[in-house]
Design a protein that fits this description.
The protein is flat and about 45 Å long. The protein has helices at 2-10, 12-15, 25-28, 33-55, 57-77, 84-104, 109-115. With 116 residues, the chain is an all-alpha fold.
Length: 116
Amino acid sequence: AAANSINQILEVPFDSQMSRTKNRVLVRGQLSTLHAATFAAVLAGTGTALLWTLVNPLTAMLSLGNLVLYTSIYTPMKRYSIANTWVGSVVGAVPPLIGWTAATGSLDPGAFVLAG
């Protein structure tokens, strides 16, 4: 949810131009950017802290790293380069790694087989 919120904040100028996305709450001004950013920060911080304390630090760092990769590299890159597809494939491969590390506590070779 944090990544989606950040993505929607970043995409407001573009979403306002497409009929499929022009009715989103941020585009229409029904929700402020500050509220969306606060929501994203609380979810990212809480989620990372919960994973760190209740699961393990490696899982927490993979999760936070994937959030940063998606919002800081993939989302802006899709406006400039088709290489974003490769970045997106990494973003999509990380959740199985997160599950693996949550279950095992490590990144074994099997984790990378699972991630594709």
